[in-house]
Structure formats: C-alpha cells, structure tokens
Amino acid sequence: MVKPDLLKCFIAAADTGSFSAAGRLLGKHLATVSGNIARLEDELGLLLFDREGKYPQLTDAGINLYDSAKVIVDSVERFTLSANQLSAGVPAKLTVAIDEDLGIAAFASVFQACQQQWPHLRMTLLLQSSQHIFEQVKAQQVDLAITPSLEGNSQFYDFKAVGHCDVNIVCSQRHPLARKRQVSNDDLMAYTQVVSQSIRQNESLYQAVKMSPAMWFCNGFQAMVQLLQAQVGWSFLCAPRDALPQGLVCLSPEFVHTQMQLQYDVIWQKNQPLSEVHQFILDNVKSAFAKQVLN
C-alpha cells in the first residue's frame, strides 16, 4: 500500500513546480522529497515526472493520478483528525433540539462552525415543541436543547440562561388590523389568533398569550409565518421588529408599553459532563443572542 507521505511529496512537487520548493513547503530536505517521489514511482511502476528540463514536469501518468492522490491524502488527514478528536473525548454524535418557534436559521453560523471544527461529528438537529424537548431530554434522547426558560429548578436537567427573543404582535400588511395605528384587546379578539403548538403545550405561557376566542394552531415558526402571510389572523411572533418575514408588520397594542420578551435557556441532562463540543455550542448560542441575532 502506498504511504501518504510519498503522495504528499508528489502533490507538493506538482503544486509548486519543483522538488526544492516542495521540500520548503513540507519542511523536508530536497533529497528526502526527491527520494520519496522516486520510491513512489518504483512502487507504481510509472514515471510521474519528466526530469529532463530545468524543472520537473508532470507526465501524462502523473496528471492522471494527481486528483486521486489528493483524495487519498485528504481522506487520511480527515481520518487521523477524527481519530484524535474521538480519543480526546469528543463525542461521535450529538443531538440538539431547538424550540420550533425559533427555527434553525438564527443559529446556522454556530452549527457551520461546529461542523468545520469537528468534521467527524454526526449531528442531528430537531425542531420541536418545548414540551416535547423536555420529555426527550428527560429520556436522554437529546444532548442539548434551546428552549424557553422554566421557572424553578428542574430535577432532570441542568441549564444555562442564554438570552431573550423579542415578541411582537404581528399580522399581514394586508390584514384589516394593519390599518390601525394602535390595536386594543377588543380589536384582537375580533380576529383569529395563530398560536404555535409549543406555546399551546405550555399551560402558563398559553394562558398568558390567549386572547381571541378564534384560535388556529400550527407547528413551528415557518408555519406561523405562512398562515400570517395568508391573512389567516394575527400572532405573538418571536421575531425582531426590524427583521420581520416578508409581508408582515408589527401592531402597536394599547395595553403594552414595554417590549415583550421571551427568555431562553440551553438545557442538558442532569449531571451530564459537557464536552468541548457541548461548551462550544452553548457559548456560541449565547453569543448569537448577545449579538441580537434574535432580539
């Protein structure tokens, strides 16, 4: 089997155009690079470089094998990195649940950075109601979760507060409510209220936001947005006033004089030690809130 070190010398020489430059790139002596390439040619039974000119030129065989050599070296490096990270205690897989009213988009950069730093990690991302998230954390089916804060201490999970999300009363810009400078309780009660299942399953939160006798329920942020855009009604939406989805507007309620906010935590199983991956996600989710990605 061809050793990766021989392939690295071949690739470096092809990329730099000379054996001496390849040596400088790899931190090896010229004789070592030249010897490794000659050994590779002997093992393959092929001439990879034409050495007749001032600088070595790839032969047709060298050109043909170059891309395959790159694939092999890259695969070996990924394998070695993954093995080193696993031996250092980095988990092989991780399941992260996000409250469905938030969505994944706000944390895309967090998970992109996570994938780049730990390429071997098998990540499962779930969008679920807060009640379902709590049940899955309790059942040890979720490793980390971003969810609305609960009052009091839980017996089955640990948590860290990470920030808050602005909550605004929102409807379509074509909805009759959008024409009002301010809306009253009676105004809102006259139209259908769209509520997420996540809020519906949280009794205290549901009672706090329930206003209209006509209620529609749906799963997740995107479903709520689509119903609002279709002028089904109005909703308490977890979204910043200056970054609402297209076609939606904020209403100004007479009964609210301060910005409504919903507090969020990252939670995990009780007494579970946090790996560097867990801590990375926790810290960066908190940074996302602090940078007002969500508020």
Automatic annotation (TrEMBL):
Example of a GO MF term: transcription cis-regulatory region binding
The organism's place on the tree of life at top rank: Bacteria
UniProt entry tagged with the keyword Endoplasmic reticulum: no
Keywords, ordered alphabetically: DNA-binding, Transcription, Transcription regulation
TM segment ranges: none
Pfam families: HTH_1, LysR_substrate
Keyword DNA-binding: yes
Similarity remark: Belongs to the LysR transcriptional regulatory family.
Protein name: LysR family transcriptional regulator
